[in-house]
Amino acid sequence: MQFEIETYRFDDDGIIPNSNLPVILYRKVYLENDKSDWFESTFIKNGWTNNWRDTILSYDHFHSTTHEVLGVGDGTVTLQVGGPSGVHLTVHAGDVLILPAGVGHASLPGQSYYEIVGGYPDGKSWDLMTGTEENRHDALTNIKAVDLPLTDPIYGLQGMLLKYWN
To answer: Which InterPro entries does this UniProt record tie to the protein (predicted)?
Structure first.
């Protein structure tokens, strides 16, 4: 495995619940052509399905029913990760970001020349939460019920996700 790993932890800020599990960023996972195709087929091979290709919403949101993987298939984008109190992460084509359930994320405004390939462990259905007070109880209950994935979306049973999340 020839890539760089970064991890980030974010506390519940009262709006975005975030997670006690770290966000994992793999830098320079795949540098050949057709990155989006490679990410999608690799995610599928490792059980991270329900895939899509698009950009990231430009407002803080999170998923309370599943973890999420984001592979940058093309371009560069700066994301706000961890909610308003989080960090700005600039990710480039070939990078992979693994977000635990509950971790806020959004693209910064004015960015459109990039493509993300997304996926979810075992193809789980995702919800879209924005941290409203009326949804907080349900979101926190849902997040606690999300199982740990059995595989890393890139490296299967050999991936670092299994080390960092277990």
So the answer is: RmlC-like_jellyroll (IPR014710), RmlC_Cupin_sf (IPR011051), UCP019307_cupin (IPR014500), YjiB-like (IPR047121)
16 CB contacts (<8 Å, ≥6 apart)? Answer: 10, 60, 62, 82, 83, 84, 86, 102, 103, 104, 131
pTM over 0.90: yes
Q: What is the pLDDT of residues 72-117, one digit of tens each?
A: 999 999 999 999 999 999 999 999 999 999 999 999 988 889 999 9
The amino acid occupying position 151 is T
Terminal alpha carbon distance of the chain: 20
Backbone φ and ψ of 21, nearest 5°? -85, 145
> How many Cβ atoms are within 10 Å of 94's Cβ, its own excluded?
20
CA separation for the pair 80, 78 (Å, rounded): 7
d(CA 127, CA 162) in angstroms, rounded, equals 24
Which element (helix H / strand E) includes 164? helix 160-165
CATH 3.40.50.2000 fits 4-165, yes or no: no
Is residue 128 left, alpha or beta, with left meaning phi > 0 and alpha meaning psi from -120 to 50? beta
Helix (H) or strand (E) holding 145: helix 133-145
